[in-house]
Every structure is written in C-alpha cells, then in structure tokens.
Amino acid sequence: MLQYNRVNRKFEAKFRPKIKKALDGVVSSLIDDLRNRGIRLAESELSQTILNQQLQKPLLEMYREVGLYHGKQTNRRLKQEAGQKALGQNEQWMADIIRILRETLLEYATFGVSQTLRDHLLLVLSDGIKNELTVDELVKILQKDTFTKMQAERIVRTEVGRAANTGVAVASESFGFVMVKEWFAFRDQRTRGRKPKDKKDHFHMDGQVVDFVDDFRDPRSGERIAYPLAPSGSAAMVINCRCTWAATPKRDANGRLIRKNMGTYKIKG
Questions:
Q1: Rounded CA gap, 46 and 57, in Å?
Q2: What are the tens digits of pLDDT across the range 217-238?
Q3: Which end of the chain is more exposed for a tag (fewer CB within 10 A), N or C?
Q4: Tell me, what's the pLDDT at 264?
Q5: DSSP annotation of 117
C-alpha cells in the first residue's frame, strides 16, 4: 500500500503542471474573449463550451503511463502467485489497457472537469456583470483566481488513482484463473468513514473481500462499486479517494488454481 501511494505521488507531481496548464488555457482564452469581444459575448461563448480539448492530451498521457505501470505490476504479481513465468506483455495486451482506459475514463473525466471549470468561470462573469465591473477588473480577478490550481490538484489525485486501479482491473481480467478481490483503504484521519457525518465509509471497507466479478459495498451508504475510483462510482465515493485493491487467485480444496470461463468473467466498470 505504501509503495502504491509512493509511486502515485510521483505520477501526480509529474502530471499536475500539465493538467494545470490545460486548465489555465481555458482561462487565457476567456480573457482574450473579454478583451476582444466584451463581457456579454465572452459569457455567451463560454456557456456553449462543452469540452476542453486541451485537457485530453495530458489526461490520455497520464492514463497510459499510470494504467500501464500498474497493469504490468499486477500481471507480474499474479503470474508469480500462479507459479508462471513473468513474461513481458505482448503489444495487444498493452493496447487493450490503453483502449479501455481511453473508452472508460477520457471522455468521462474531460467532460466533468470541463463542466466544473466552465460553471466556475460563468459564476465569476455573472458576479462581475451584477457588480458592474469593467473588463479590466474582471481580467484581474481571473488572473488572481486560484481555482485552476485547486482543480488540477483534485484532478491528478483522483485520476491517477482511477487510472492505476483501472489498470489493475484490466490486467486482472486477462488472468486465466478464478479470483477474489480485496479493498485496501488508506487509513488516516482523512479517510472517509472516520467521522459520523461522512456520507461514505471507506475506513470500514478496508479488508473487504468479494468474488472478482462482484461489487464492493459501502457499509454506510450501501453504494456498490467494482473497485476504488471505478468510473461508475458517485462523486462522493471517488473524488480524492486514495484506496486501492488487489485480485488474488482462488484455490480449490486441494490448493489448486481454478480455471475460469474467459468469455463470461468480466469486471463491471
């Protein structure tokens, strides 16, 4: 667990500036619109923005690097537990990880982040209009705004963990034996569930073991999720989550591994 978090902190440090630069690009474009077209037209243009295309490139780069790293680590560990040689992954296996990460995460994250930033900037403009601020006054507010820094911090923390755990899922699915999976919470004072007012309880999910194809269950809210930070999880369940998980081969009464039906053994996202 400590090694997992240590590696992910390095990934966060690497991609945080790239994510912030993409977010700052949206603010810079808005400032240009304010200066060239005025407040009303800039507000109208911003309100129609759906996706921040600049954000897709660093997110995809992050998903590839983080997902592949943790997928390879999981593949190596599972083969060792099964007594198999830890051979290198073929190109198709790695292509599958990239494809699934892109399909399940890229549009999901880009859309959500774009909407959050757009709504914040629209609120800034709305307040400016209400208070009859000039363009120059609005520009100064936007230039001093720390929202993109906070958002970049939240994005890398959540999305690095999401890519890591999805990489684990893809690698585990490719393993040819029946498995169980276990939830590992990062237990400290900030862990969900330590406080009575917390809506979710990751603290007491720590150590929860279920069959690989089944969902983990939050004991407080009842929410079910395939793995920590899975794309299907609610915002309260996944944002800033630091939990991880692992799949372990299941054995029969004689201690032998149990082969699975590859066509039906799929984890839910």
A1: 21
A2: 999 999 999 999 998 899 899 9
A3: N
A4: 47
A5: H
